[in-house]
Q: What sequence folds into this?
């Protein structure tokens, strides 16, 4: 049966309406896509900007708030002129001494001597290997580290790495915590003070928060200063890409949380 004019008109309006709705959906999709991409771009720009300002002690946001400055190094660092660091008001340095139960940092003893000669307060840290015998790791640190009166309290580095995988398995997690307790308690007995624990946001929540509530904390956060979640934090590592005169390539930068007088609490009697 042939289509009447009225039916043809109605059919035409229906097609135009469908086309209009389809076009609106396309336009809406494009607008939303651009809005999402713009938001992502702004977010990345802000994070990038934050990262960029965390590379020196010259940022007035923090340099006027935290007056006690420090660095931490291992054999991975290139040449360091320790006297130049002291002239730039660097107060302290943590040096990597040992890792696991057999690794020794090849530059530790030389760095200890020259840093002390330059007038810096020096501490040693041990890189904890997850789940391995904690007492053996502690004894390895004690045998190979120079820890004297007036030096900084030793520190334990607790973080994920190529050898320290995330402990999601309950049994592995339990062993990891048990051996870390053995390491921590052995060092406490040896030096008479609880060791400082170095960690980051993720590892703090996973391993430290509910297991080591009384240790002073050395928090790594490259984006913002530590908040109230870390009630015991005393040192903030804010950069892995520090720029300082007298240092070749990058160096880790740190602030001590409190005053010069209170810094004495981080030193061994």
A:
């Amino acid at each position: 049966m042939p289509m009447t004019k009225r039916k043809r008109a109605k059919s035409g309006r229906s097609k135009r309406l469908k086309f209009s709705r389809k076009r609106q959906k396309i336009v809406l999709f494009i607008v939303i896509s651009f809005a999402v991409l713009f938001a992502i771009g702004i977010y990345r720009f802000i994070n990038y900007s934050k990262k960029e300002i965390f590379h020196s002690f010259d940022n007035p946001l923090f340099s006027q708030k935290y007056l006690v400055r420090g660095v931490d190094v291992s054999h991975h660092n290139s040449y360091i002129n320790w006297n130049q660091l002291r002239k730039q008001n660097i107060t302290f340095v943590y040096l990597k001494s040992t890792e696991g139960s057999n690794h020794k940092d090849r530059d530790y003893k030389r760095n200890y001597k020259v840093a002390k000669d330059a007038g810096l307060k020096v501490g040693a840290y041990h890189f904890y290997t997850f789940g391995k015998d904690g007492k053996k790791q502690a004894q390895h640190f004690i045998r190979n580290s120079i820890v004297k009166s007036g030096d900084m309290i030793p520190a334990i580095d607790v973080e994920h790495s190529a050898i320290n995988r995330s402990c999601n398995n309950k049994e592995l997690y339990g062993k990891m915590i048990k051996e870390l307790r053995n390491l921590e308690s052995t060092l406490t007995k040896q030096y008479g003070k609880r060791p400082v624990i170095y960690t980051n946001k993720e590892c703090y929540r996973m391993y430290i928060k509910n297991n080591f509530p009384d240790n002073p904390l050395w928090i790594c956060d490259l984006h913002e200063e530590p908040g109230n979640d870390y009630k015991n934090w005393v040192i903030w590592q804010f950069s892995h890409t520090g720029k300082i005169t007298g240092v070749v390539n990058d160096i880790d930068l740190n602030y001590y949380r409190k005053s010069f007088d209170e810094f004495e609490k981080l030193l061994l009697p």
Q: What stands out?
A: The domain at 56-266 is CATH 3.20.20.80 (TIM Barrel).
